[in-house]
Known about the structure:
The complex is a heterodimer.
Chain A: H1 2-12, H2 14-39, H3 41-46, H4 48-92, H5 97-138, H6 150-177, H7 180-184, H8 198-219, H9 221-257, H10 259-262, H11 267-280, H12 282-307, H13 309-314, E1 321-324, H14 328-335, E2 339-349, E3 353-357, H15 358-363, E4 367-368, E5 383-384, E6 393-395, E7 407-408, H16 411-421, H17 425-430, E8 432-436, H18 438-443, E9 447-456, H19 463-481, H20 497-536, H21 538-550, H22 555-584, H23 600-625
Parallel strand pairs in A: 3-8, 6-7
Antiparallel strand pairs in A: 1-9, 2-3, 2-9, 4-5, 6-8
Chain B: E1 4-15, E2 23-34, E3 38-42, H1 49-56, E4 64-69, E5 72-73, H2 79-89, E6 90-93, H3 105-115, H4 120-134, H5 149-161, E7 167-171, H6 179-196, E8 200-203, H7 207-210, E9 215-220, E10 223-229, H8 234-254
Parallel strand pairs in B: 3-8, 3-9, 6-7, 7-8
Antiparallel strand pairs in B: 1-2, 1-4, 4-5, 9-10
Helix pairs in contact in B: 3-4, 3-5, 4-5, 5-6
Amino acid sequence: MLLKLSLSSMRKMMKDYLVLLVGLVVSISIFYMFQTLAMNSDYVKANSMIRSIGIVFNVGAFLLAFITIFYIFYANSFLLALRRKELGMYMVLGAKKAKISQMLFGETLLMGIVSLLIGSLVGIALSSGIGQLLMSLLDISTEGYFPFYVPSLLMTWGFFLVLFLLTSTINAIRLARATELDLIRADQQNDQVKAKGIGTIVVAILGILLVTFGYYLLTHLRDYVAPGFIVGAVVTTIGTYLVFISLLPVFVQILKNNKKLNDRQLNAFTFAQLRFRVNNLTKILGTVAMLIALGVGAMAGGMAFQQNVELVASIGRGYDVTLQDPGHEDFQALATMQVLEQNEYRYKKDGKTIYYLKDDLLAHPPLISANTMESYSPENSLKRASQPLTEKAYIMYRDEDDKQQPKELPEEWSQAISREFMSSYKMERSHAVQVVDPSIYNQVKGSEHKVVLVKLDEFVKYKEQLKAMDARQKELLKPEYMDKDADNDEEFSLETKYSVYEQAYAFTSGTLFMGFFLGVAFLAMMASCLMFKILSGATRDKDRYSMLRKIGVRKEMLVGSIYKELFIVFIFPAVIGLLHVLIGMEMFSIILLEPYKNIWIPTSIFVVIYALYYLITVRLYRGIVLPKEA
Amino acid sequence: MSTAVLEVKDVEKVYGSKGESQSHALKGVSLTIEKGEFVGIMGPSGSGKTTLLNVISTLDRPSSGFIQIAGTNITQMKQNQLADFRSQKLGFIFQDFNLLENLSVYENIALPLSLQGVASKEIRAKVDKVAQTLGISEILQKYPVQISGGQKQRAAAARALVHEPAILLADEPTGALDSKNAKSLLETMTDLNEKHQVSIMMVTHDAFSASYCKRILFIQDGSLYTEIHRTGDRQQFFKQILDVLAELGASHDVR
């Protein structure tokens, strides 16, 4: 019998359950996808590039799990609140509390299992679709990657089942503590109008001060580093809550105290509803603002990393290509590109030292850049190395104690050689570097080589050719510079612009990918939290709307009031959350060169998703509160 | 020109669609209320008095027939016209007050004026005036939860009257009040009717409340049964009402 009741009431509340279900499915499927990307062990082993991304996905899964816990608790307590009256009625009719608790427990668990089933399926589809897309984007072979991966599935099911069991138990306990009368009268508890005194204003000022202080810390991370980040994040979060607890009610009160505004049409009612909302929703609105900040921040962060890849790869560089002893194929490839500058430099190499020919250097002074990772400014333009080289010989990294050595190579030239001439740090580590006169150069016994530096019109246009060049260079240089005693499996990596670009690209694509999905998941959960909270109070508002209709308020006006009221409820956390993101992105300036590049993309994604939730909420709310017309 | 504020002609209300089991809530009711009258509608539960009030108050549409309030035919109006009509021409008092508990008494009373776009200053003057008439000037800034049942009903009456409606429709206004508060409200209504010429139509099943009216219409099974006029004092009228009710009960038993 209870099963029947339970099923029928679930059917009745299908819409509300559907909202919960969607939130859960999104969370579960993304959790699963992250797990497959992080856990597919053969695949992770086969791709060195993935190893670093794996960590990113584990962090993402952890964050997601953390937020999901809060979401499930919230959502379930709202659903319970919606059903209080019905459950109370069962009890009055003689159903035992234990039975009802049992029913509720079963329902929550059933809900969980259904969402797990759907979520896993969606997750597998997501991983086989989007996971593969990511890999093709990164140029990674999908060998060893299984979208259907049992350990990841077990992990997902284990984690969420524990979570659902916990919430079911807590729901049942909560019900057991309430009396029948509490439940039946759930609707009749009046909305208290709390007096707001001077204390609120103090709290509001404190909140604003805390947020400002947090912003200051986060935007000056260079000076405060890790402690600054932790204190900044905590202070901003607390400040956000304080602002919502105090400032928002004060704001609505100010609106209400404006007699002219308040007396216009339905404004008195709209503001009154709003005041009740902001007083009741303070905590959830604060949470929503933080979730928006996290979600959009994750998206914007990922995207900012992605946008900065080329900048990172070209930082401190004047040239796009470095070729040691280029072959026929290399010149053929170069012929297809638009070359802005191409210089050749000869060098000789014996067992211990690489000798560059000074005349070649002076004939074509290389471009150098004043930018480094630590201090970057877009205004720094390239210039040519111009320090005079008057001595017969110079050495890089001179040993001060060795009086036999030639003079230290001037800074500009040293920078050019180290950043542009060397294809691999192994080259620089295994040999000393000298710049010498032809008289010395000709005496050097050793093999003669040349290095070609090329500047292109646009680096990203030629990724394909550059990739092939890098592969040939690797083959060429590996036998020469690889440590003889090194493990044969050890990677021989280049530090050419393309190689740096490729690595940064892989890492940032992972970050972007994760940021995007985390963002979507956070937004979905956050918006449905807000939706639940508003809908759970809707039955209470029903009488008010029917009364207004009776005294002759046009339907459009009621609808307009609903739009206005919910709009203000939705807009506040959005504004504060976005403000957090816009200011918070500044902290990435430590590791990113231009953190604000293309920030409008994640912002618009957010606005679209959020607006959708706003419209859905208004729709559902209207359906509940507006009287049916005869 | 007729002085009738309300004219109801052959109004029928049928629930349920054709072919199904239909129930006739109103079977051709006709009545007229003149300006400045205080009319009671009485009848047992299920007699159709609430349906009658609903169709007169434009909350429900009659299946057939004709209703005219203050010279306007309301049976052909669209939803929005009806809403506007309600907010301009009608005043309501309900059994359960129906005040918005999240608005102060002042805001509750001001609402009908706000809806009509009256200027803030004028609203204040009108609310103050009607509050004075009803003796609730002291509690204007309070919220409904902070005042007594009697005060709530006075506030509701003030809201119903603030925009000077053509007719005040009261649905069991004393239903939720104790006898002292009920008496005081009824005296206020009489006062409004006599001194301020407010036309009132009150639906009630309570003979004591009804005895304050000038004229009472009895309905039974969806039709007008009889009507009585008050000629002497209230006590006498009260007895008269009880007699008709007894008659009604008897006819009920016969069937």
